[in-house]
Amino acid sequence: MSSTLKLAMRNLLRYRRRTLLTALLITLGVVALLLFVAAAGSFKQTMVGSITDSMLGHLQIHRKGYTASMDNLPLTMSLQPKAVEKVEEFLKADPAVAAYSKRVKLGAMFSNFTENSSIRLNGVDAAAEDLAVPALRQRISEGDKTGPLVAPGKVLVPALLAKGMKVKLGDSVVLVATNASGSVNGKTFIVGGILEGITGPGGRDGYIDIKDARELLRMDKDEVMEVAVRLKNIDQLSAAQERLASALETIRNKEDKPATELHTWAELSPFANIVKMIDMMTFFIRIMLVAIVLVSVMNVMLMAVYERIREIGTLAAIGTQPRKLMAIFLSEGLLLGLAGAAVGVALSYAVVALLNLYPIVFNFGREQITLRPMLATVEVLGVLGLAVLVSGLASLQPAWRAARMDPIDALRHV
Amino acid sequence: MPLIQAQNISKNYRVGDQEVPALKGISFEIGEGAFAAFVGPSGSGKSTLLNLIGCLDHPSSGTLRVHGTDISTLSRSAAATFRGENLGFVFQDFNLVPVLSVYENIEYPLLMVRGWSQDKRREQVNKMIAAVGMTEQANKRPDQLSGGQKQRVAVARALVGEPKLVLADEPTANLDHDTAYKVLNLMKAMRNDFGTSFIFSTHDPKIMQEAEQIFTLEDGRLSAQGVAA
Q1: pTM to 2 decimals?
Q2: In Å, what is the CA distance from A195 to each residue of A103, A143, A205, A211, A242?
Q3: Percentage of residues in chain A with pLDDT exceeding 90?
Q4: Between chains, do A318 and B97 touch, taking CB under 8 Å as contact?
Q5: DSSP code per residue over A29-93
């Protein structure tokens, strides 16, 4: 085996320039793919992290039908205390669940005493919300980032609204809400923080304490509109979703139908479609890499066979078995692919290291994204394996041709 | 038992719709330790006959036995095995592998065909390199050698596996007169030292005189055979 590889290596070095150019082409393909995967992965991770860690959580539980009319923030579609109790029971029992936060969601009128605007609010328990969406407090651009997320009597105001209504930290504002039975109630709050908005649903919501929200809505029971769930590891999402969905099935309404619905962050955020698009683009770039390797290696190997017909005849004449001849040419193609891909991987690691030293920063909507690309070993091995596999496939036909060559015809070839 | 037994062998080639006979019912025998030549003008069938004996081609009819094996019916793979174990080849254009050194070219049949161990290979290759007087050039590549040196290497490569028979198609055609004689003398010396039979083809009357047995071919027929004077 080593002698075959040695001979293959020597043959590749016989036409140095051609080998170098082909390997370079494979290298460029591998670098392009790996850098795209690394950058897209970093973008995806940043965005998904931002959406799940500072807003949605990994999973959300609502009363059945709530998400269909979520934009209207319906007050009549809340989870009743008994259902909430059961939901909490399931969440506490699930090994993948790290934390959860109950939310009372409402729409209100926001007044600075001179003008009014509308605001979407989340009434939350500060400690639970902190655990379920730990990056939420990082969005506080003005205000105390170290104390409780939102204290009773205080409101976290979205930056756009604060700017538009010219309210500052410590200002008094009035929130007026209509409750489920149609009566109106108002309450004065102190602006406890200004929140930077992020892309996606709820990205421009304000926050108040859950007791304040219930008081504003004159709720006499501990109803909840939403339960945001954080998992210990996002990789456990599918399994946890499956487990929780089947557990939640047991919570039935009066018509003996499921009373709750469970959604992943991807089902709630339009960014999931961008993720799908990125994955699709990665797939197409992968196909381009396959095409580059296939065409370049096959071209080189066909030329190699054509140029060495007499040599093939000689080797066959002195007793080299057809399978050995095939192995020689296959090895050449594989080595070519491996060399090109290996250099590509090394270059990709170097470029990724440089991009981590000097990260690329850009704005996505109102968010500032810092790209810190990472190369996952699995991805690198996959690309390396793909390049070598395709090189092997591309060499198969030329190698087969060499092995099947008639020694006499080959020896006569001029 | 003779090394080669040919009985009424014919070989036809198809050119378009026509069958063109290259050999027409040839019969002969060659014994072990022979130093024989197939002679005749171009197109007389010398190379075709060498190709048949070398298991590179099959006769259209007749029986051809080499070292007791009927080689007329060998499969592609079996023919390769037979060549690797029993035959050596020397070509007119030397046909050395350009990316291998002298040592590696000679080693190739033992390594890639026979699969000998490294120690056994080293001993045998060094013996052959010394026998053809190429020890000084062992690490050189073919493009650093003269024509005569290349043919010496080719002879060593043909002999390294200690075959029963070495076939050489016009081995001196690309060499000057002096070098051609040196190569022939080398081949004869190898025959004497190792007992290997040599059959070569030539159309050079001076070279054919070096053979101990001469088979003259004309238009695909064996017109004469005899022992050189």
Answers
A1: 0.77
A2: 18, 9, 9, 20, 34
A3: 69
A4: no
A5: HHHHHHHHHHHHHHHHHHHHHHHIIIII-SEEEEETTTGGGGGG--SSSPBPHHHHHHHHHHHHH
Cβ distance A320 to B80 less than 8 Å, yes or no, reads yes
Residue from A202, A197, A337, A222 nearest A265 by CA? A202
Residues A319, B84: C-beta atoms closer than 8 Å? yes
Give residue B228's pLDDT band: very low, low, confident or very high (50, 70, 90).
low
Number of neighbours of residue B212 by Cβ within 10 angstroms: 14
For residue B101, pLDDT over 90 is answered with: yes
From B92, which residue of chain A is nearest by alpha-carbon distance?
Answer: A411
3-state secondary structure (DSSP) of residue A369:
strand
SS3 assignment, position A341: helix
Distance separating alpha carbons of residues A205 and A156, to the nearest angstrom: 9
- Average pLDDT of chain A is 91
Domains of chain B (ranges; CATH) run: 4-227 (3.40.50.300)
Q: Is the distance from CB of A214 to CB of A123 less than 8 angstroms?
A: yes
pLDDT of residue B62: 92
* Chain B residues with at least one Cβ partner in A under 8 Å: 51, 54, 56-57, 76-77, 80-81, 83-85, 87-89, 91, 93, 95, 97-100, 108-109, 111-113, 157-158
| From A313, A324, A408, residue closest to B57, measured CB to CB | A408
Beta strand A226-231 with A97-111 is antiparallel
Give pLDDT tens digits for A190-206: 999 998 877 666 667 89
Mapping DSSP to helix (H, G, I), strand (E, B) and coil, where does residue A8 land? helix
Q: Which two tokens stand for residue B174?
A: 């690309």
Residues from chain B that touch A319, judged by Cβ atoms under 8 A, are: 80-81, 83-85, 87, 109, 113
Best mutation target, A5, A11, A308, A318, to test chain B (most B CBs within 10 A): A318
Kindly indicate the confidence band of residue B174, based on its pLDDT and cuts at 50, 70 and 90. confident
Collect all residues of chain A within an 8 Å Cβ-Cβ radius of residue B59: none
If one counts every other C-beta atom within 10 angstroms of the C-beta of residue B226, the result is: 9
Two tokens at A358? 């000097």
Neighboring chain A residues of B57 at a CB cutoff of 8 Å: 408
Find chain A residues with C-beta within 8 A of B51's C-beta.
408
DSSP state of A136: G
- The answer to whether A328 and A4 are in contact (CB under 8 A) is yes
B contacts of A318 (beta carbons < 8 Å): 83-84, 88-89, 108-109, 113, 157-158
Closest residue in B to A4 (Cα–Cα): B112
Quick: pLDDT tens for B43-78: 889 989 999 999 999 999 999 999 988 988 888 889
φ, ψ dihedrals at A152, nearest 5°:
-55, 140
